[in-house]
Amino acid sequence: MRQAEPDGPAGPGNPVVIGLVNNMPDAALRRTEGQFRALLGGTPPGPSILVKSYYLPEVPRSDRAKMYLEEFHEPVSSLWDNPVDGLIVTGTEPLAPLLSDEPYWHSLTRLVDWAADNTVSTIWSCLAAHAAVLHLDDIRRRPVGGKLSGVFECRKVDPHPLLAGIPPSWHVPHSRYNGLPESRLTARGYQILSESDGTGADIFVRQRASLFVFFQGHPEYDRFALFREYRRDVIRFLTGQREVYPEMPVGYFDDDTAAEMAAFRQRAVRHRGADMLDSLPDDINGANIRHAWHETAVAIYANWVSHLAARKLLGYWPATELPQAAMRLPGSP
Asked: For labeling, which of 191, 201, 260, 290 is most exposed (least CB within 10 Å)?
């Protein structure tokens, strides 16, 4: 674990530096960055934060997306000699049956190894979480049977400081085809912090020199993210890119919007074809969709930033040698 001389609390002249490695598909690239910046920017007054954006060059991109990344982001190799305090790594839509066959696999696993020794803490989101535990402990994800999509109630099952001040249960979006078996995670030393009957493990962690935090859900999602994904999958059905019409996200649409989507499904199945695209709803701004998970997500990320700031103040001592007080976050007992 890299160490630095303690140099005072984080502030405008000494911000907590967070790297964001954004691997999301082109259509979600800018929105995803905005979602994470909104979470970090929505935290209560506290440490000053500086977010730096990075990308994996091996993730397949359109020419337009490549130009955007090259202009506004740095390649992940820039991290090797310019460490950050914390790191957030997003997933992407898989292209290969095995994660180890993805074109970016070697770069991503190098990032996992680097982050273990060069960050105070790293957040691994969705597919990035699956890739990290596969690389670290050979824990393989398993299909969940169709797509797990919707807003699910999760419950706290561990009093970890990361969840300090969080209610016993909250709602969080999930969107994935695979999951990680909890028994395998706990057997290899991972702590499950939250779970749901509908999703299995939601948040889990592993403390080594760096605190690795894994999210199978998407607390960073904005209010309409699940709708955009659902609409994308409907378009793929209409254009022949998938054979089965997608199921609506669970617990997400209000009754009127659900009825509208169900009616469109009936028409689309009967008259499948690209000509149906013109009548596919593209705007649900009038729908009664609450951003029910945002407040809790902000609180979790605020706790995470506080952890980064506390370790920065102490000069990045190895976690195993930290005074017990340094491991507690604001609000924890």
From this structure: 290
